[in-house]
Design goal:
heterodimer; A: 372 residues; alpha+beta; Rossmann fold; 5-stranded antiparallel sheet; 9 helices; 23% helix; B: 293 residues; MetI-like fold; 13 helices; flat; sugar transport (chain B); transmembrane (chain B)
């Protein structure tokens, strides 16, 4: 086991920049999730840690020691490739046993058999051991690839979207299984995903990557409640956070507040924020934090309100998703049917949100969050 | 109603008839082409079975004899006095030798060209390719001057060396595309499993390009075996190959076309046997199942 640290990693392939500036630290024995859209540089980051991609700049450190000159074979990391990268000429058993039969990690054959059976049982592929990998479904191949990682102890596990090709039910159970394995073994794990639910549920810490840069690193709670930028805020949660553009205005009663362009939302600026009058900002909140009230309802204490008209309602089981149109922007509100009450399309409504749940961002899609 | 139905049936019937006619014409056409392209071979077989009197006739009626084969192979009294077996052995040694040397150099070269980027890679690859499309006559004059001087004239080593011009580009270029088709992540997985680069290559990559190696070796062997210009100019007797050696039956005071035919047919046996025995390796798709599809 080891801690993994990346310092200022940059990597280009020809003219395309894969990584512009990637730095983060994964503490020894912790589970780190790397989240980002496709093309953000997640896989390149993993391969850099493994030594399979040589960074143009920056250093990779294991336990504080620069491993730049260490060959992949000797880094003692195990990686689950997004493409699986199984050995097609071998059956499942030999694929799983491959690390334990290599010169570097060789174990007695009896132990190999025992370990392979254990891992295969955990992953639910023990009935496939004698099959060629070509005869497996994508979901089964993906589990073989994951098994080849888990079969041997390593300083770090690097998992590149290891659950994407499993069906929803299996994915949920494998996610729980992985969490359990990670906690038991205490192996440092870097887990790449584009699924925010996986990141939030598995990661002790999460790094958000976009266009080759780390936008934010933090605990799931920090990422959720204090997203660094609009990008991070919108990368987590479904439906995603909606933003209302507006500006800072002077309060005749003293101080300043935010008013959206329609003029219907007035929200206090975050504590300690010093923003000049006239600055363009955008306000956002999570759909689950909002409630829908009647058009003339009084705004509860400590809440901000915005008025609009219901454009669409969607019933999803006990949940209801309401889209409220505010001056051309659709605001999503999600909640229990009982809590949101009966709203019909076309109704005039007031959407209320606790003032503390409203986040303010600078202008633009990469706008940084204002406030502590 | 019935009118329309019968109308439809008639149309359907003509459609079937037309398709059947098409099939018949295709078959006839293929048979004609088959006869056309195989006729020279048939003629050679007939010629090889004729005796000296009949060899220039075009009759199909003659009493077949295996005398030509006996003469060529030097069996019994019929010996034609030409060391055909030695030519045959020379051909085998030089062709197989050339292919083996090319594989030894070409497999790593193809792998390097497929996997790594290095300065001048494409120029090097193009130079190699140019050996294939430049006529052999371009190099033959300097070689025929140099070879006697450095003692390579009429030697196996010299022939194997010069045949690299034929076999190496083929092997490098074809195997390169086989290596490029393989996902580099398979080797990367092997590296992380704890295998060295060499072991990863031998254990995971090489088995997957086996069909490619089989196919290209066969092709290279055939090209080397059939080569005429190099043995003609760079050998005299010791390393003379069958392609050139078969012609010795035509020289002298009388042309023995029936012997030449027999010699050529015997010379066609090794490539044929090799092609048939290697056939089962000539299937692609061994890498199926390794990566996501």
């Amino acid at each position: 086991m080891a801690s993994v640290e990346l310092r200022g990693i940059a990597k280009s392939f020809g003219r395309t920049t894969a990584l512009a500036d990637v730095s983060f630290t994964v503490a020894d024995g912790s589970f780190f999730c790397l989240l980002g859209p496709s093309g953000a540089g997640k896989t390149t980051t993993l391969k850099t840690i493994a030594g399979l991609a040589e960074p143009d700049q920056g250093t990779v450190l294991f336990d504080g020691v620069d491993v730049g000159d260490v060959e992949p074979t000797h880094r003692n990391v195990a990686m689950c490739f997004e493409s699986y990268a199984l050995y097609p000429q071998h059956n499942v058993r030999d694929n799983l046993a491959s690390p334990l039969r290599s010169p570097r990690h060789r174990r007695p054959e009896a132990e190999v058999v025992k370990r392979v059976t254990e891992v295969a049982t955990t992953l639910g592929i023990d009935h496939l051991l004698d099959r060629k990998v070509g005869a497996l479904s994508n979901g089964q191949r993906q589990r073989v690839a994951l098994g080849r990682v888990l079969v041997r102890p390593a300083d770090a596990y690097l998992l590149d979207e290891p659950l994407t090709h499993l069906d929803a039910k299996l994915r949920a159970s494998m996610r729980a299984e992985l969490k359990l394995i990670a906690r038991q073994d205490g192996t440092t794990t870097v887990y790449v995903t584009h699924d925010y639910v996986e990141a939030l549920s598995l990661g002790e810490r999460i790094g958000v990557l976009n266009e080759g840069r780390v936008i934010q690193v933090g605990t799931p709670q920090e990422i959720w409640e204090q997203p660094a930028t609009v990008f991070v805020a919108q990368a987590f949660g479904k439906p995603r956070m909606v933003l209302l553009p507006g500006a800072v205005v002077d309060d005749p009663a003293g101080g300043r507040f935010f008013r959206d362009v329609s003029g219907s939302l007035r929200a206090p600026l975050p504590e300690g924020a010093d923003v000049a009058v006239g600055t363009q900002l955008q306000a956002g909140f999570r759909p689950r934090d909002a409630r829908v009230l009647g058009p003339d309802a009084a705004v509860p204490d400590g809440h901000v309100a915005v008025r609009g008209r219901v454009a669409v309602t969607e019933l999803i089981g006990a949940q209801i998703e309401v889209s409220v149109e505010v001056d051309g922007t659709l605001l999503a509100v999600v909640g229990d049917r009982a809590r949101l009450g009966q709203v019909a399309e076309g109704d005039r409504v007031t959407v209320v949100v606790p003032a503390g749940r409203v986040l303010m961002f600078e202008h633009g899609p990469e706008g940084a969050r204002i406030g502590p | 109603m019935t009118d329309t139905a019968s109308h439809v049936t008639t149309q359907h019937a003509t459609g079937v008839a037309r398709r059947r006619l098409g099939r018949v014409l295709t078959t006839v056409g293929l048979l004609a082409y088959f006869a056309f392209s195989l006729f020279p071979v048939v003629w050679m077989i007939l010629l090889s079975l004729k005796d000296k009197q009949d060899q220039l006739t075009t009759y199909f009626a003659f009493s077949p004899t295996l005398d030509s084969y006996r003469a060529v192979l030097g069996l019994g009294d019929a010996d034609a006095g030409v060391p055909f077996l030695r030519f045959f052995v020379s051909s085998l040694v030089t062709s197989i030798g050339a292919v083996l040397v090319s594989l030894l150099i070409g497999v790593p070269a193809a792998y390097a060209a497929a996997r790594f980027s290095f300065r001048g890679k494409e120029n090097l690859m193009f130079t190699l390719l140019s050996f294939r499309f430049a006529p052999e006559l371009v190099v033959i004059i300097p070689l025929s001057v140099i070879y006697p001087q450095i003692g390579l004239f009429d030697s196996y080593t010299g022939m194997i060396w010069v045949l690299q011009l034929v076999t190496l580009p083929l092997i490098v270029w074809i195997l390169r595309s086989y290596f490029e088709d393989l996902s580099p992540e398979i080797e990367q997985a092997a590296l992380l499993d704890g295998y060295s680069r060499t072991q990863a290559f031998l254990r995971t990559v090489l088995p997957l390009v086996k069909p490619g190696i089989a196919a290209v070796s066969l092709l290279a062997f055939i090209f080397a075996w059939n080569n005429f210009v190099f043995p003609l100019t760079l050998t005299s007797s010791n390393a003379q190959t069958v392609t050139v050696g078969s012609l010795s039956f035509i020289g002298g005071n009388e042309a023995k076309f029936n012997f030449t035919a027999a010699a050529a047919l015997i010379a066609a046996v090794p490539p044929l046997v090799l092609a048939l025995s290697i056939q089962r390796f000539l299937v692609r798709g061994l890498s199926f199942g390794s990566v996501k599809d």
